[in-house]
Amino acid sequence: MVDATRLSRRVPSGVSAVSSDDRYATYLGESRRSACSSELLGIRGPMHPFALIVSEPIKIDIWSDIACPWCYIGKRNLEGGISSLGDDAPEVEITYHSFELAPDTPVDFEGSEVDFLAKHKGLPAERVHEMLDHVTGVAANAGLDYHFDTLQHTKTLKAHELLHFAKEQGRQLELAERLFRAYFTEGRHVGRIDELVELASEIGLDTGAAREALESGRFAPAVQADIAQAQAYGINGVPFFVIDGKYGVSGAQPREVFARALTQVADEKAA
Amino acid sequence: MSDGAATVATDAPAPNPFAMIDGDASAMVCEGDVCFIPGAGE
Question: Which pTM was predicted?
């Protein structure tokens, strides 16, 4: 007898676990359609019917902040972990949750990243440079191009609100990637509404709706709810990954750790 | 609100409801402004 559940985990290479076919998108719902491993991996193709019918995706809830360098690295490592599983990669549904690391940061901070860290930590600028060089190297190993010399330190509250708006629009993953790259690689200002609206536009979100969402602050309660949830869970640092509501993974773990965790959860679900 | 009401400290760590998956113990996290130093906080 064919084990349909196991089949659901074995989506052939190059075949999407979730189709772009609107019939199935309707079945799945927009958020699920946008939050699947196939999009993470850049895979497109015809739908594998068994995957939709018999299997629920593994939910991955991630608490992070756009201004957190280890969150971007952790994101890339998670994606690498999923990718490394190849044909056995389970379908996943990823949701980003807000965690504002430094709420007291002004939107327009005068000074460099070195200035900010030296001021808050009281460390010599030379030591801060060493730390930034270290994280830049780790990021490079993860395939990321960090430029702390051009980074514009800012308050990330509005970026979090925009992530919630994008979630509502089924585009949260794309926006998370866009915001991280804008902040750490491109030196874009992710604290100002005008710049955020432009970034939203770049991933296909409606500029008018994005601006309205940010100017009205209607997603501010959702941001605070995420932060409160993190506190309730005892999450003090980010990135923090919750896999299928059962397992916690703290920090920018290597891709192997994510791969192992997802395999374990997938096996448990298939049992 | 009663001024005489007893207060309870609320800053104690909340219980983590998840089974933590052990990985690389030196994996970096950010806490507050501290994002660049191993060991989460120092």
Answer: 0.78
Q: Is the pLDDT of residue A4 over 80?
A: no
Q: What residues in B contact A118, CB-CB < 8 Å? A: none
Q: Is A57 in contact with A92 (CB distance < 8 Å)?
A: yes
Say if residues A251 and B30 touch (Cβ distance below 8 Å): no
Q: What angle do CA A59, A60, A61 make, to 5 degrees?
A: 115
What residues of chain B lie within 8 A of the CB of A106, using their CB? none
Q: Could you say which of 1.10.580.10, 3.30.70.580, 2.60.40.10, 3.40.30.10 is the CATH number of the domain covering A4-109+152-270? A: 3.40.30.10
* ipTM, 2 dp: 0.72
Q: Which residues of A touch B23 (CB under 8 A)?
A: 249-251, 253-254, 257
- State both tokens at A256: 């192997």
List, for residues A119-140, the tens digit of each pLDDT value. Answer: 776 778 888 888 899 999 999 9
Confidence of residue A92 (pLDDT cuts 50, 70, 90): very high
CB contact under 8 A, A135 and B35: yes
